[in-house]
Design brief:
- The structure is a single chain.
- By secondary structure, the protein is an all-alpha fold.
- 67% of the residues lie in helices and 2% in strands.
- The chain contains 15 helices and 2 strands.
- Strands 1-2 form a two-stranded antiparallel ribbon.
Length: 378
């Protein structure tokens, strides 16, 4: 049995992560892609007039299982990867990208979508249906449906390269993140750190086989952010900050500089191939801003209005630091620390005091109650 293919009976469609194994992904993805391709062939060979239901709704359902399997994989790959997952990541990416390329570049499928789209004015579709139809039509056009065969093949090659490079980028970042450990033991090294962080660091040290009394801190956000916010040891904050900010950009096997450059070039080539001047133009067309000029104007407006406020806040923070006998010239590794102390002094807000009110079981219980109340009102 493959938990990625079994019918999900968990509440709210929760994913059974505890049952999923790395070896489940490739067989599951191949199976759902084969199933989807058979369904797509049936649609292509159908003589029925294309409608929203037999075209757009049909495609939505066909893709859902493929997107589910690949989505679960890449979510796990980004937050809790392993050597096994890294070994199959490129194959999962190639299968997923290949499937979506085949679909979006299929001329017969696009003709059916186009036919439904042309009749949008005379249809009796609701607002959500119209939005979904427009989304599908634009997605096909924006992903190469109108390209000639040569252009489509070039697009496939670009997407394949970008997929591989993205996986490589992520693997490098994960390796760099996992390779750093800050092990502390002396009482003076952990001054200021809250109990919840020390408990987590103690457990992390224990899992690594370290002696009792050791605390292990890493570059993972749940460890890094609280340490930078609460540690009284400025030298350790600086050390952690510099390692965190230089991940994959200091040479060696995990350096990502060349990958970033190549991805930028490929994005530009892809945008040009699809008729856009830049990658920014391609991305922003479907965003609120619509065009790069609007973004530039917004940034300019924000700068004009926010900079004076930011300067005033920085002066306040510097004065506050000086009052506590801290540095007059704050560095990047100082901001979170002094902002937290200033916030506590001004507003009497303490994360440790608030934590009991946001325990996981209480949040879930409150969420479920809210859902029930909404259901009753409906």
């Amino acid at each position: 049995m493959n938990p990625l293919l079994d019918k999900n009976t968990l509440q709210f469609g929760a994913i059974p992560f505890d049952k999923i194994k790395v070896e489940n992904f490739i067989p599951a993805l191949k199976e759902v892609i084969d199933k989807a391709n058979r369904s797509i062939e049936e649609m292509k060979n159908s003589k029925d007039k294309p409608t929203f239901k037999n075209t757009i709704e049909y495609l939505e359902k066909v893709q859902s299982e493929v997107d589910f399997v690949s989505g679960v994989f890449f979510n796990l790959h980004s937050v809790k990867s392993s050597e096994e997952m890294q070994n199959i990541a490129k194959e999962v990416s190639a299968l997923s990208i290949g499937f979506h390329n085949d679909l979006s570049l299929d001329q017969r499928i696009f003709e059916k979508v186009n036919q439904v789209y042309k009749n949008i004015e005379s249809s009796e579709l609701g607002g959500e249906e119209v939005k979904l139809l427009e989304k599908y039509y634009k997605s096909f056009v924006r992903n190469g449906a109108n390209l000639n065969d040569e252009g489509k093949e070039e697009l496939r090659n670009i997407d394949r390269k970008m997929g591989d490079l993205s996986i490589e980028f992520g693997d490098h970042l994960l390796d760099e993140t996992n390779s750093f450990e800050l092990i502390l033991k002396k009482p003076e090294d952990i001054v200021g750190l809250p109990e919840f962080l020390l408990e987590a660091a103690s457990l992390a040290a224990k899992e690594k086989g370290l002696d009792k009394g050791n605390y292990l801190f890493t570059l993972d956000y749940p460890s890094y952010i609280p340490f930078m916010t609460h540690s009284e040891r400025r030298d350790l904050r600086e050390k952690l900050y510099r390692v965190f900010m230089s991940r994959c950009f200091k040479g060696g096997k995990n350096d990502n500089k060349s990958i970033v450059k190549e991805l930028a070039v490929l994005r530009h080539q892809r945008a040009n191939l699809l008729g856009y001047g830049t990658h920014a133009e391609f991305v922003l067309e479907e965003r609120m801003a619509k065009k790069p000029e609007s973004v530039s104007e917004l940034i300019k407006t924000l700068l004009e209005n926010a900079k004076p406020v930011g300067k005033a806040e920085m002066e306040e923070l510097k004065a506050f630091s000086k009052r506590l006998n801290g540095p007059e010239n704050l560095e990047a590794w100082d901001y979170a620390f002094y902002q937290e102390k200033l916030r506590k002094e001004k507003f009497d807000i303490d994360d440790e005091i608030l934590k009991p009110y946001f325990a996981l079981e209480k949040v879930i219980s409150g969420f479920s109650k809210l859902q029930l109340e909404r259901s009753c009102r409906i």
